[in-house]
Amino acid sequence: MEKKIIVHTGAKPGTELPIESQVLNVPDVEFILRGRCDTPAKVLEAVRDADAALCGSEPYTREVFANAPKLKVVVRYGIGVDTIDLEAATEYGVMVANFPDFCIEEVANHALVLMLACAKKVVQLDRTLREKGWQAARALLSPMGTVHDQTLGLIAFGNIARAFAKRAKLLRMQVIAYDPYVDPAVFAEAGVESVGLMEVAERSDYVSCHLPLTPQTRGMIDAAFFSRMKPTAYFINTSRGAVVKEADLIAALEKKQIAGAALDVFEKEPIETTHPLCAMPNVILLPHTASYADATFQSLYYRVANAALTVVRGGVPEFVANPEVLPHRRK
Prior knowledge:
The chain has helices at residues 18-23, 40-47, 62-66, 86-91, 104-119, 122-132, 134-138, 159-170, 184-190, 197-203, 223-228, 246-254, 294-312; strands at residues 4-8, 29-33, 52-55, 73-76, 95-97, 151-155, 174-178, 193-194, 206-209, 234-237, 260-263, 283-285. The protein has a 7-stranded parallel beta sheet with strand order 8-7-6-9-10-11-12, with helices on both faces. The two termini are 17 Å apart. By secondary structure, the protein is an alpha/beta fold. α4 (86-91) links the parallel β4 and β5. The radius of gyration is 22 Å and the shape is elongated. The chain is built from 13 helices and 12 strands.
């Protein structure tokens, strides 16, 4: 029996992947770690003879799909597929599996934590108390909003934003959102007002960004948006760093056009400690961890491995990011 080859293009040889290895330790599969493939050429070299690939943020380009004739599926850890050329995958009959129901509650909780940390200046007060003392910290209290009766503005209104909206409503906040692709009935059911993008900027005390990264959304949040925000407002991003023109955000913070920011994602990752944002006391920075919880990731590892196994045995994964491929998918 010829074994099906499943490769991992985001983990170095020797990396322990106990859950994936357990699921794929079956007679009809050979599971191979090809190393961290950070260029299309490296990805192609890794998957040229593979039947399935497991990936993180590695670049799966047209060149890859055109030259990997056995490849049937690319399984993406998580939700985003912005590093995968979906059009090329579809053209060559390759399914792209992802998990749009992954980490909804975790990221909504994370966004809530960041909003409250901004509102109550938790990180800034903690740092100042440790470094400069009690009185210096208390001198930073004003201006500080109430949270309740304030306005949360959401950029995009997908699953995570809707979960965040539910939490904000429990805090007696007004919630508005921009998303031209969502049916008005969805807004009405959630008790959220649908508004234009610039109205989100103008009315919100806290702006939380939940945009997917696409060619249309890349750099969408820019100087024009920040210039319309209140000087007491905070900007929160737990989506994708590249939807924001980071230089414009930095300029808005330097000019005190906005009160501060809380960022889990960045235009280029990882950021260095010399990054300008690292020197700003009114900015909370986290290393792209919004989705993380032990149990959540363990479940994801099982799902990723099982999706690949399903496909190499002739099936279709639970979620396909390019469903138009299904009639002519490789088998």
